Design the sequence.
């Protein structure tokens, strides 16, 4: 976490420094208003991002290594995440199976309500089905 804070503060500091330099460069030549402040910020974002690629290379590599290690720890085998993680996964699978069964049941009810038998042929005389087999 400390690496993330250091890298983020370094990026922010680099942005502020570049914004200050651009502002000082434009202050005497351009009238200052909200639009020039926005353009100055956009220029500062682009320039500070390019500078960060070079200047903050070590901090970025340290942050990437820390995140990769954290990812490896969290993606370990199920037993490594805690004693009851396998039970949670089993419960989740059961909930998904139950959901699939409910969806199948509702599809079957819709099929039955359409007035068709198992062969897909509409039964005449049922409400909602015309003589030619189309629903009304």
Sequence:
């Amino acid at each position: 976490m400390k690496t993330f804070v250091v890298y983020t503060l370094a990026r922010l500091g680099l942005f502020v420094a570049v914004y200050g330099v651009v502002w000082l460069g434009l202050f005497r030549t351009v009238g200052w208003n909200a639009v020039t402040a926005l353009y100055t910020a956009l220029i500062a974002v682009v320039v500070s991002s390019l500078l960060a690629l070079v200047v903050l290379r070590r901090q970025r590599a340290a942050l990437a290594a820390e995140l990769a290690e954290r990812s490896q720890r969290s993606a370990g085998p199920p037993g490594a995440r805690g004693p009851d993680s396998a039970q949670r996964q089993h419960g989740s699978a059961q909930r998904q199976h139950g959901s699939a069964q409910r969806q199948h049941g509702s599809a079957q009810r819709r099929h039955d309500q359409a007035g068709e038998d198992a062969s897909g042929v509409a039964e005449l005389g049922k409400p909602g089905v015309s003589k030619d087999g189309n629903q009304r």
Notes: The mean pLDDT is 77. Helices lie at 2-27, 34-55, 57-74, 85-113.
